[in-house]
Design goal:
With about 80 residues, the chain is mainly alpha-helical. It has one domain: Serine Threonine Protein Phosphatase 5, Tetratricopeptide repeat.
């Protein structure tokens, strides 16, 4: 798998999340993470999507923590952890 597949997966996941199709969005965020596990966008997107689908804030925490591990000043991830 190459970077082109990552770009397609992350863009499709984001589009699906923005249109409210969170279950499919989660599938493509996970696919993007298989290609690029340290992607801030994919970890953050999956965290938000898991929270939206399951209403289980605790299930989303590891993804926001990964974002903060990669970028300690990621304001949105800090906010999501506060919500969780």
């Amino acid at each position: 798998m190459d970077q082109e597949h990552f770009g397609a997966a992350i863009h499709l996941a984001t589009l699906l999340a923005n249109t409210g199709d969170n279950k499919k969005a989660a599938k493509y965020f996970r696919h993007a993470l298989k290609i690029q596990p340290d992607s801030i966008a994919a970890n953050f997107g999956l965290g938000k999507t898991i929270h939206a689908v399951t209403k289980n804030a605790e299930a989303s925490i590891p993804y926001f923590q990964k974002v903060l591990l990669l970028d300690q000043s990621h304001y949105k991830a800090l906010c999501q952890l506060g919500i969780a």
